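--- STAGE predict ---
source: upstream dedup step, 1 unique chain passed
mode: sequence only
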Amino acid sequence: MNTFNTVEKMRSMRMHAMADIYNQAITQNMYSDMEQDEFTALLIDNEWEDRQHRKIERLIARARFQIHASASDINYQSSRKLDKTTIQRLFSLIFMKNCENIIITGPTGVGKSYIAQAIGNQSCQMLQTTYYFIASRLFDEARLAKLEGTYLKKIKKLTQANLLIIDDFGLTPIEQSDRQVLLEIIEERHQKRSTIIGSQIPVSRWHDLIGEGTIADAILDRLVYSSHRIELQGESLRSTQKLSK
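--- STAGE serialize ---
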């Protein structure tokens, strides 16, 4: 039997983990104490785990997070008014199963983006399609897509993602075209997919921020009233980290 040829065939079929185990068994006489069915299970289990890992890596890369954020590294210091039980419940991703939203507000530097991206990372770990956007970049890409004739494809991608994160909402003026994009995205995702919005602006000011009363009403009606609210407080974590150095 040409074992080298067998290994190469496995690799050509992208069974890389399986090929590595099989190659070790042949060249290093490993796993010789296993029964045939045990060894077959080992091959399949390693290949399955490797493919899951690579899929998670692809999902994280496509999400375009700005930082690597993890639930285990969230700071629960009392001044932030961050309820640990609530956050842990959100990390279970039940809100996604229920097609609910999350709104995270608070001053600059208190960790809104970190929490949003940590939840996004958890979503990817659970093999859910996730996208992260700074709001201004989202609107810029939508305008560019209109010019390039790929707008419908872009919107479909955003509306069908299991989790969409829009960060720094309201930091730049919202133009008429931006309102239409936001309305279309939120309307299509309503009761179908979950969205996370991060903003320094309190929700009470979003109506005026969005402008165009009818559109603002439609967006907020679909977004706010089906949302979990996290209102962070305290001073900037960036400043406290700088002072501690």
